[in-house]
Amino acid sequence: MKGSRRVRAIRVAGRAAGRDYQGRSWVYFLLSAQTRGLSLGVNLSPSGACDYRCCYCDIPKVSALHRAPVDVQGLALELGAALDFVASGQVVHEPSYSRFPKEWLSLRQVMLSGEGEPTLCPNFVEVMETLVHARALGRYPFFKLVLETNGSGLQRPEVQQALELFTAQDEVWMKLDAGTDSQFHGMSGVDTPFREVLARILELGRRRPIVIQSLFASVDGSPPARGEIQNYVRCLGLLQEQGAVIQRVHIQSVMNWVESSRCTHLPLAILSEIACQVRRELGVEVEVF
Ligand code: SF4
What counts of helices (H) and strands (E) characterise the chain? Predict the structure, then answer.
């Protein structure tokens, strides 16, 4: 059971600590460079259900057919307790967090994420309603909601319905690790046509601003070729031209503790070069982790 792990190893770059469930099943603490502080994560994929097989993902995956619902009553209890804990300031006395600056330990956001793809969660609407309700109670300082997704379940009517509950301050972070079919298939491990991935990003990006999350790695010993990066930047430019509003781009790599025989970390100099190219050609805010 996920909740039995005290600290879950993380799968992407930029996170200063692991997922800290502290005995809970659905809600974990996460210190993240991407959010410059403490987040609460909600695990919408307890079974690890995901329809991608990213070459850098360290979480054992099961088929998307094995998706399981979230116990929303349990989630509400865990979320309330975790929010109370953060609001009380006790988190600064936790041994695993005491070495971090105090300003990192106030709550930045609540993330819909987890061990697999959150938009595949069968009761996504109920989860979202639970989070929005906790925020509407007004017992805690305002926190934004962030959905971290590969986009594959975004077309589901219940996900579309749930996203109507997002305010302008909330964010959707969408995965885009490639600029061509072959690069996408190599990174994601699936044969979904790349144009479908871009269409999903475009569709949402026309409705609300999105944050693009891109992970680049050295795969089988080779860093991404210059042409691949150019194609990736060109895709972002086309999305913009066609009406997607890109609020920010996150550029990151595999961290060394989740490196595999296939995927290893890219040096900061290469990540910074990619970030500069995106900034120059798109004129959007880019952060490197
Ligand atoms: S989409 Fe996310 S959870 Fe799914 S395989 Fe890729 S990194 Fe892992």
Answer: 7, 12
Q: Would you tell me how many other CB atoms lie within 10 Å of the CB of residue 55?
A: 18
Ligand 1 center from residue 28 Cα (angstroms): 18
pLDDT digits (tens, 9 = 90+) for 105-127: 889 999 999 889 999 999 999 99
Domain boundaries of the chain, sorted by first residue:
1-167, 176-289
Rounded distance between C-alpha atoms, residue 2 and residue 27, angstroms: 10
What is the reported pTM? 0.90
Given pLDDT bands bounded at 50, 70 and 90, which one contains residue 3? Answer: very low
For 266, what's the count of Cα atoms within 13 Å in the CB-facing half-sphere?
Answer: 26
CA of 103 to the centre of ligand 1 (A): 30
How many other β-carbons are positioned within 10 Å of the β-carbon of residue 276?
13
Tokens of 176: 């885009």
Residues in contact with 261: Cβ distance below 8 Å, sequence separation at least 6, in sequence order: none
DSSP β-ladder status, 19-20 and 37-43: unpaired
Which homologous superfamily is 176-289 in? Answer: Aldolase class I (3.20.20.70)
Whole-number Å distance between alpha carbons of 257 and 279: 29
> What is the average pLDDT score of the chain?
88
Band (20; pLDDT cuts 50, 70, 90)? confident
Instruction: Name all residues whose Cβ lies below 6 A of ligand 1.
Output: 11, 50, 52-54, 57, 59, 61, 116-117, 150
**Rounded distance, CA 82 to CA 267, Å?**
36
